[in-house]
Amino acid sequence: MLPDMPERISREEVAHVARLARLRLTDDELDAFTHQLGDVLAHAADVEALQLDDVPPMSHPLPLKNVLRPDVVDESVDRAEVLAAAPSAEDGQFRVPPVLGEAP
Amino acid sequence: MSARARDIAADVRAGRRSAVDVLEEHLARIAEREPEINAFNLVLADEARAMAQAVDAAVAAGDDPGPLAGVPVALKDNLCTRGIPTTCSSRILEGWRPPYDATVVERMRAAGAVFVGKTNMDEFAMGSSTENSAFGPTRNPVAPDRVPGGSSGGSAAAVAAGFAPLSLGSDTGGSIRQPAALCGVVGVKPTYGAVSRYGLVAFASSLDQIGPFAADVADAALLHEVIGGHDPRDSTSIPEPAPSLLARLGEGVAGLRVGVLKELCGEGVEGISPDVLARTRAAADALAAAGAVVEEASVPAAVYGLSAYYLIAPAEASSNLARYDGVRFGLRVDAATTGEMNELTRTAGFGAEVKRRIMLGTYALSAGYYDAYYGKALKVRTLIARDFAAAYERFDLLLSPTSPTTAFRLGDKTADPMVMYLNDVCTIPSNLAGHPSMSVPYGTGDDGLPIGVQLLAPAQGEAVMYRAAAVLEGGLS
């Protein structure tokens, strides 16, 4: 990026996005990501500049509709096997540290 | 004896070779070269021996083990294998053993395949060099100072090194085709929905597809037929059987209309090398000589593909990777509260490239930027699909380079993410449109390294695409 160009994304915005994404970044990572995300967004300026008001968005290659299976009992994954892969489990459930009383 | 999958399967089915012998030959090759190449996160020697013995026992009992009887296969480490670690080359999934098999794994098992290992990849399939692996990079068997491409670099390297005649990869923006090109093997991204994604760890769900690697076109077709076809467990699976590919492989290209994709063959492709363009022109000439009508084609919106992709794929990834929170599987970093535990786990478990993409996607989806970035990118996707549709009114197939360059040196493109992303410029448009495309080896560059050319087809146009690939391959031998 040229030095006289305004940053596409600020360091503060990057820090905010990291909080949204549940990631803790070091100061060095914040600097690097601010620069690198700015580069990608600068490349995306070609897309940003297009006038596309009349074009519908395409979120998927297939014309998707709800796909339902017959309502019959079928084999499922084994509960004990699933819980065995968890970091912590108790009484047939996933165990986590306290959730209530935290700041959001 | 032939190293081709179809010959191995024919010999094993007929009792001329034992699956155990075939496996031991491949394990010996792995023992010899794997320390240098690092194609695998895990070699499944014991499991493979048990599978090979079962195949031989079936043959001895007069049963037919199936079209992949005794064929060693390597699986990208983002394909779930029940009870066998599946890491996506990420610390956050280290040691995780899935409680179920991916549909493609089930189908190959039912076809008599022997799983030799789980292959290395860029973490969560994010990368173009297999250098973003938590377990160290894979090296290109053709030239070990070079990358194998990515993200399915381990799967491409496994076939190129002769560790397995077949492997499976996944392709979100080129992750099968680009490493195939760089390692000198065949790699195919099927039509979106043509191969079940059940059990494929999700990266960008509207773009991801599983597909085959093989040393030649017929072997890729063989594996494609086994893994393809409807799967009720994937709601995006096309409700049709697998295409018939092998039977039509020899039909040639006489009368087919082939368009050389202008936007991916010159201006508009940053850093494309002249020898790659020369080989693409040679491929066009070869198809013309075989009776195809070859002309220039245009998909104007393809020039926006890279920008659109690097908004859409990170956006979907930021959502898909929200599930790695330390609660149900994989890594957990303990903390006093769940919120803190989520954050510390994700911070410790994800590598730099994965964090970068999660950040980019979270930003592109965030309030105030959604319309400018993600929303715009989805509209560009419509333009690309429309332009392809117009091109396919005139053409049966399109042709372009697969990768702008031959294999680069390890470390050459790691400093600047944007430079790495440019590797995907020719492969991304097919993912955005949901179309099939494949890379076929077509000679070498000035540096002696493999060059691949890309064949692109409209949705469910695989049979014609494979026919043209067979013609290109046949013209070289």
Overview features:
heterodimer, A: mainly alpha, two-stranded antiparallel ribbon, 4 helices, 2 strands, flat, B: 477 residues, alpha/beta, eleven-stranded mixed sheet, globular
Provide a brief overview of the structure:
The complex is a heterodimer of chains A (104) and B (477). With 104 residues, chain A is mainly alpha-helical.
Structural topology:
The complex is a heterodimer of chains A (104) and B (477).
Chain A: H1 11-20, H2 27-43, H3 45-48, H4 79-84, E1 89-90, E2 93-94
Antiparallel strand pairs in A: 1-2
Chain B: H1 5-13, H2 19-37, E1 40-43, H3 45-60, E2 72-76, H4 103-110, E3 114-119, H5 153-160, E4 166-171, H6 177-183, E5 186-189, E6 209-214, H7 217-227, E7 257-261, H8 274-289, E8 293-297, H9 305-320, H10 338-349, H11 352-365, H12 371-394, E9 397-401, H13 417-421, H14 428-433, E10 437-444, E11 450-456, H15 462-476
Parallel strand pairs in B: 2-3, 2-4, 7-8, 7-9
Antiparallel strand pairs in B: 1-3, 4-6, 5-6, 5-10, 9-11, 10-11
Describe this structure in words.
The complex is a heterodimer of chains A (104) and B (477). With 104 residues, chain A is mostly helical. Helices cover 36% and strands 4% of the residues of chain A. In chain A, strand 1 (89-90) and strand 2 form a beta hairpin. Chain A is flat, with a radius of gyration of 23 Å. Chain B has 477 residues and is of the alpha/beta class. Chain B is built from 15 helices and eleven strands. Chain B has helices at 5-13, 19-37, 45-60, 103-110, 153-160, 177-183, 217-227, 274-289, 305-320, 338-349, 352-365, 371-394, 417-421, 428-433, 462-476; strands at residues 40-43, 72-76, 114-119, 166-171, 186-189, 209-214, 257-261, 293-297, 397-401, 437-444, 450-456. An eleven-stranded mixed beta sheet of chain B has the order 1-3-2-4-6-5-10-11-9-7-8, with helices on both faces. The longest helix of chain B has 24 residues, at 371-394. Chain B is globular. Chain B starts with a helix and ends with a helix.
